[in-house]
Amino acid sequence: MTGRVAGKTALVTGAAQGLGAAIALRLAQEGARVLLTDINEAGAAVQAAAIDAECGKGTAFSTRHDVTSEADWIAALAVAKDKLGGLSVLVNNAGIGIGGTAESTSLKVWEQTMAVNATGPFLGCKHAMPLLRENQPASIVNISSIAAFTADPFLAAYNASKAAVWMLTKSVALYCAKAKWDIRCNSVHPAFVETAILEGFHLDKSTPIAATHQRLGQAVPMGRIGQPEEVALGVLYLASDESSFMTGAELKLDGGLSAM
Fold first, then answer.
1. Is position 158 annotated as part of the catalytic site?
2. 158, 166, 192, 201: which is the annotated catalytic residue?
3. Domains of the chain, with CATH numbers?
């Protein structure tokens, strides 16, 4: 561990498991103090306790947070200010994935997917901006997906929501640059990663989830799905000052899928 984000304070959404948990841990291991938020309050608390046990008491905190709720965003950011003393890194990671075509997807699923995957990051960028301005240089990292570029007939809502995050990122980046703030905003675009979200793409319930992982991995040029830790390392770079001249950009962590 080299302290690549030493002195940084970070809020990571959807941090009770999967990508969010891996990202929060990696940032803490590299010197940041972190607030883990999730609608699964107990899960976030468990992850925060594990980080404290490894990195030292007072490194990690947690709070319940529904990213679709503006009131919850305001409350979570108040916790960040209270527990961390401010905020210099925002990682909009919380997301859901439910398969379905444009015809088979219900309006309820469409609205839920857009609310979590697109409205959540919007609210985060909007309400975190005052804290980020107070703690420059600062960084926003939005977790999108390779699905923002590569369409699938069975991922109508997911494709649309992740493309929205991609464009939101660029708009926020240009807004901050135009205002002369040292606040960067970039998006990360993983391909299939071994997390619970893949269960939403496991449409054939008669087969084991491992079969879906294998099938998805076969579609990737590198021949496998990704691991949460691999995405966490990409986020670490974007959260650190090493990426000081990178904004409005997309980091593809897709095993070569988008090169096809």
1. yes
2. 158
3. 9-255 (3.40.50.720)
